[in-house]
Amino acid sequence: MKQHQARKRFGQHFLIDDSVPEAIVRAIAPRRADNVVEIGPGLSALTAPLLGRLDALKVIEIDRDLAARLRQAYPPERLAVTEADVLDVDFSRFGPALRVVGNLPYNISSPLLFHLMDYADQVRDQHFMLQREVVDRMVAQPGDADYGRLSVMLQSRYEMEKLFDVPPEAFDPPPRVVSAVVRMMPLPADRPRARREGTLSATVARAFAQRRKMLRRGLGDWAPHVPWERLGIADSARAEELSVAQFIALADALDEAGALGPPGRPAA
């Protein structure tokens, strides 16, 4: 079988250091019957050790040549290949208690993380390798320079832990950045949550659009609708100072006031 050339348009960087997938598999600690879906299996660097611990594995691969290689290398009862753009995949088709893993393409990492939020109720956990800068943003806390929209939205739905860094030389071709592995555990049903997710998303997006401005300015025409004192938020505060719980309270207050439209209608 001829050597596969990495395709830039798919953001392909293939793992060549065996110690990295071994460390990822140890972190996942799969059991034989677990319902695991791997995103972007590529040349099977992670696929092979996963299959060594699982009865069967599902994978999603956009590259038709790599999908064909996978079908040739593994029997269908052990490896089910979905050939598709992962951003178009309905994860509900894979069943409950999903364990999602993958070396995610850097060029779609944020859109993919938001796409997967729609299926968090059926996910047990997620283990991803991403650009370290993205992982640092995911796990950042209020007041951190990396704290922003990605931090708030993902932390409203997951408990997350950065596990370890992966150097560029672990890949072929080597990326220009350091990577990192993160664990994401969906929060339980009784977690603090906004009345409407759309309102929370819109509020966080507007608050961080001009993150250096005080919230009363950054929120624009929504600011007069905010009961600052009742929420315990100073109107001089900046978005990066608010906790996830405070953003939820802020979004609910804006929703109650109809700042984004009549209550009960989807947020813009």
UniProtKB/TrEMBL annotation:
InterPro entries: KsgA/Erm, rRNA_Ade_diMease-like_C, rRNA_Ade_Mease_Trfase_CS, rRNA_Ade_methylase_Trfase_N, rRNA_adenine_dimethylase, SAM-dependent_MTases_sf. It catalyses: adenosine(1518)/adenosine(1519) in 16S rRNA + 4 S-adenosyl-L-methionine = N(6)-dimethyladenosine(1518)/N(6)-dimethyladenosine(1519) in 16S rRNA + 4 S-adenosyl-L-homocysteine + 4 H(+). Keywords: Cytoplasm, Methyltransferase, RNA-binding, rRNA processing, S-adenosyl-L-methionine, Transferase. It is an enzyme of class 2 (transferase). SMART domains: rADc. It comes from the Bacteria. Belongs to the class I-like SAM-binding methyltransferase superfamily. rRNA adenine N(6)-methyltransferase family. RsmA subfamily. This is Ribosomal RNA small subunit methyltransferase A.
